[in-house]
Amino acid sequence: MVEIGRHEHRVYEPPRPECAGWQNGVVESSADPAPVAFSGSRLGWRDLPRAVRARIAELAGAEVIAETSATSGFSPGFAAVLELGNGHEIFVKAVSAEQNPVSPELARREITVATALPPEVPAPALLWSDDDGTWVLLGFEAVHGRSPEQPWRAPDVARVLAALGDLAAARPVDPHGLQPIAVALADDFRGWRTISAAAHSTQVDETGRRGERGAWVLEHVDDLAAWESAWPEAALGTALVHGDLRADNVLLDGDRTWLVDWPHATIGAPWLDLAFMLPSVEMQGGGDADALFWAQPVSAGLDPAALRAVLAALAGYFAHSSLQPSPLGIPNLRRFQGAQAEVTLDWIRRLPA
């Protein structure tokens, strides 16, 4: 299990004109390989304060004798499977604001979400948690498996899409503390409206240097803002939405497909996780996002305009976020978001007019 991705570290800072990849909302073309979903830094067991290590051992019920650190995901905190002296294993997350100021609140959110997950959802069980106001600790059932290979292989794509189809039918356990997705992401999913205002105020005239995709964005930035503004109605629904599924938040274990890291869970339309995940699948070589989307039962009868609205909001979030300074301890996140913005825009352009 790993943590954070698309919606973590939602701290607004003004766009930096010199930021590579996007400038004034215009994407720069790049031949670079897909970026890796990993922060490049993570705490080890010995990096934790002695009191935190003692508390984890107390909660786990045995001394810790070995660790296997998670090797994907963006969190700079501690995330590892711990082998215990009693022969058991447990997956532990330990975060504090020192590593990243937003991580503790996300960990607290994951504790809330755990109580809302129905038993049919393939998520590791939360066994215990602890919060002393500085360190937030979570102990999960340890599950094993591998992330989907990259580039994606067709059998892995099929397995994960089947799991998303099952998830689309899930509903949270009542009572729950999950927000409607349109409420939870109201501030995040307005990137094109922000970018459009900035672009018009600075009279961007660098279309020629931005490539064909950039030229299209400049020509359609007002359209993107208008499509984006319609996303709340398009996303309405009562389904359980993970909200942050990518290859690094999936574990394939024999015939079991685990969906992990749930701090961003909300309620909304049942097709949202499919739409949110497919740009990363295409980015990582898994196939055409549009073809994969419409081949799934959950997309049956969906108005393409609703999909366009949600994808515009998603692309705007990625594009605007990629302009911000890197969050503390997560230097690779902005490049990953910029790459997802490119693929999502290309998907939008393939939709019927």
From TrEMBL:
Residues 103-296 form the Aminoglycoside phosphotransferase domain. InterPro entries: Aminoglycoside_PTrfase, Kinase-like_dom_sf. This is Phosphotransferase. It comes from Pengzhenrongella sicca. Gene3D superfamilies: 3.90.1200.10. It holds the Pfam family APH.
